[in-house]
Write a structure and sequence with these properties.
Helix content is 28%, strand content 23%. It is of the alpha/beta class. It has one domain (6-148): Alpha/beta knot (3-Layer(aba) Sandwich), CATH 3.40.1280. Strand 2 (38-42), helix 2 (56-59) and strand 3 form a beta-alpha-beta unit. Helix 1 (21-33) packs parallel to helix 5.
Length: 151
């Protein structure tokens, strides 16, 4: 499945209430390597200094939002919010067509996305997995899948 009009597309990826700085650092490195336009965090649960050995924060825009409401009000114009969550209504990633302009939102492994984030997401996607994945691994899979469908 292709992404329509890729040449005018972009994506950002971030975590709501991330649990550990290591997860943020790994996600940021993957985002830098897999072509994200920006990265972000929502909430104050994460450590202030994430493990970012590749200095992704200096290489691409990084945004922090105190609340989901603040984040949602700053979604880029025309961007679709894609929540990554194991729910009955989530589409399988294997058959999901990525929007050309979107923002991927992941939740922490122990709490997932907030109810508000699930309700406001334009799309929800999930993996073939009976258990939740590490948030940085899940984000890396999403970005890899996006890139693999660019052909």
């Amino acid at each position: 499945m292709k992404i329509d009009n890729l040449e005018q597309g972009f994506f950002g990826i971030g975590i709501q209430n991330g649990k550990t700085p290591e997860n943020l650092g790994v996600l940021w490195r993957s985002a830098q390597n897999l072509g994200a336009s920006f990265i972000f965090t929502i909430g104050n649960r994460y450590a202030k200094q994430a493990c970012d050995t590749h200095k992704a924060v200096g290489a691409m825009p990084y945004f922090h939002y105190k609340t989901f409401k603040e984040f949602y009000s700053h979604l880029p114009k025309g961007a679709m919010l894609v929540g990554v969550e194991i729910t009955a209504t989530a589409k399988p990633l294997e058959t999901f067509t990525h929007p050309r302009r979107c923002v991927y939102l992941l939740g922490a492994e122990d709490h997932g996305l907030s109810k508000e984030a699930i309700e406001k997401s334009h799309y929800l996607v999930k993996f073939k997995s009976s258990l939740s994945l590490n948030v940085s691994v899940a984000g890396s899979i999403i970005m890899y899948d996006r890139n693999s469908k660019l052909i």
